[in-house]
Amino acid sequence: MTIIISVLNQKGGSGKTTISSNLAHAIALDGRKVLLVDSDPQGSLRDWNEANGGELIPVVGLDRETLPKDLKAISDSYDFVIIDGAPQIAKMSVAAVKAANLVLIPVQPSPYDIWACADLVDIITARQEVTDGLPIAYFLISRAIKNTKLGNEIKSALVDYELPVMTTCTTQKVAYPTTAAEGKTVFNEPASSAAKEITAIKTEIMEIVNYGA
């Protein structure tokens, strides 16, 4: 069975592409076949793929509402498909939620980012109501600042949405934008603290989807 993970937030700058590309590489390093899907017409993930010559993870652009149907035609040969969601396009969010087994919602520790999640949460819960609670959905705190109270405060603020929050997160690190600009991931330095963050996120996701159990 192919596991499809949609990384979504209708607010730009939440870290979707960074998380999508790094998570895909982490899973691929475990020997799994992974496909990245760029559903954003701006094509940031495709630009990243071009920067590495298409040699790291296969990337396809599917930025139409037919995304779930289009995926069915190509996903069977992969263990995981990770969809990098499009910001500010509600119809594409609906399509990505419909296609997914798991939705990750990266959210920065900012009230503006928390408020911006409301519409997406509505889309997810509406889908869950007609599909016996699927897809599973989790918030993922993105670009947290270490040694501040914001991490705990954001978890409290997200409680109202009634969706779980992952225990792992990403923090603000130069490694993320630096490696992205080169078409790489933080696994360019596997022992780095950024690589350890992504590995921890990957491990938690594998537990969430019960993969390999």
Offer a concise description of the structure.
The chain is α/β, with parallel strands linked by helices and 213 residues long. The protein contains nine helices and six strands; from the N terminus they run E-H-E-H-E-H-E-H-E-H-H-E-H-H-H.
Layout of strands and helices, then pairs:
Elements: E1 3-7, H1 16-28, E2 34-38, H2 44-51, E3 59-61, H3 67-72, E4 80-84, H4 90-99, E5 102-107, H5 111-115, H6 118-130, E6 136-141, H7 150-158, H8 175-181, H9 193-208
Helix pairs in contact: 1-9, 4-6
Spatial order of strands in the largest sheet: 3-2-4-1-5-6
Residues in β-strands, percent:
5-15%
What would you report as the Rg, rounded to the nearest angstrom? 16 Å
Number of helices: 9
Number of domains: 1
In quaternary terms, these chains amount to: single chain
CATH topology: Rossmann fold
Helix vs. strand class: alpha/beta
CATH arch. level architecture: 3-Layer(aba) Sandwich
CATH class, named: Alpha Beta
How far the N terminus sits from the C terminus, by CA atoms, comes to 13 Å
